[in-house]
Design goal:
Blueprint lengths: L4 H19 L15 H20 L4 H26 L5 H25 L3
Helix pairs in contact: 1-2, 2-3, 3-4
């Protein structure tokens, strides 16, 4: 079966984001919740996880597992998105606020796309 468009978008997003995690991890440090230990290592590990999910979604044989892994990853990074929104609410930077708050409702369709990919394997 071919990969649904929503899962293609998800895989592309993971590939881009995962690359940024590895090349410029400092971009993600401000949104890390304070209770998460070893920020840099967690950022790098999540970048590797995103790249693995992206690759797994692209291959029919691994798509089901990658779909489940993608859904779990999205749930796992949600606290970072909440932290980002909380931090944004304390600034006057309207663009930062808009981006931070826009990310929150996007999680649900991204998780749906990941779950849809589990049925397309």
């Amino acid at each position: 079966m071919s990969l649904p468009t929503s899962a293609k978008v998800l895989a592309t997003g993971f590939a881009v984001s995962g690359t940024i995690h590895l090349v410029k991890p400092e971009v993600y440090e401000p949104i890390m919740p304070s209770w998460v230990p070893a920020h840099r290592e967690v950022i790098l590990a999540s970048g590797v996880a995103e790249l693995l999910c992206a690759a797994g979604l692209a291959v029919p044989r691994t798509r089901r597992l990658a779909g489940w892994a993608s859904a779990l990853l999205l749930v796992g990074v949600f606290p970072g998105n909440l932290q980002m929104a909380q931090d944004a609410s304390k600034t006057r930077n309207t663009k930062f606020k808009a981006a931070a708050y826009a990310r929150l409702p996007l999680q649900l369709p991204m998780i749906r796309a990941a779950l849809r990919a589990t049925r397309e394997g």
